[in-house]
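Service request form, structural biology core

Requester: graduate student, group of Dr. S.
Request type: structure prediction, single chain
Budget code: on file
Notes: please return the result as structure tokens.

Sequence provided:
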Amino acid sequence: MDIGRDTIPGAQSVARAARLLRLVTAGGDAGVPVAELARQADLTRPTAHRLLTALAHEGLLDQDERSGRWMPGPELYLMGTVAASRYDITAIARDVVRSLAVRTEESAFLSVRRGDETVCLLREDGSFPIRSFVLSEGVRFPLGVASAGLAILAFLPPHDVDAYFARHQELPENWGASHGEKRLRARLADTKSRGCSVNPGLIVEGSYGMGAAVFDRDGHPQWALSLTGVEFRFGPDRLPELTRTLLAHAHELTTRIAAQRR
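Core staff response, request fulfilled:
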């Protein structure tokens, strides 16, 4: 029997707490103020503060005494070290990401799919002195927004893509008209055709990105390698070579994952 989340007692509170945990971890070392967390989680400030305080009581969050900002707590670290043995591929991916940055001279990244989002796990900066800072470790984007999520979404089964659009009709409102379903589906088709995604400054003007899906043993796109840089570095003179290099590194990592998990 399939029981919907809304019919499970306490599910709404759990979902709200989980949303706050994700927002705090995405905020990094600087921490996030309660007002910003409440806004992003679509909660009243008293409700957000009550949930944050409960999470801090369990050691999942900390609050800086001087700034009042919320940060990840020690229990999250302990939980993460246990989960890492099952889910973390950074150990086998780090040199691949570094090689991608060296070969292209651009910033290179590894992201993982978590539900309807991607989370950046690794960043390696290339030697080119002008860089894009759209993405860094811990930053989350909805699938289809940044180049990594666009690459993953493009290679999901069609019924999963349809369900994703049904769940997220707010994308153009939050991320601009270029993320409306019709235009986003066109980019998905282009991604499948060329094998990797191209994000021409759709998040930050002048900051370009490319992404290639990395697959698990069952052929599901669970991760992505991506590149970001300034616009003139992704022109027609470099794009073919960047595409070949990115796809080669994504294939190498897919092969490593398959070999490791046999």
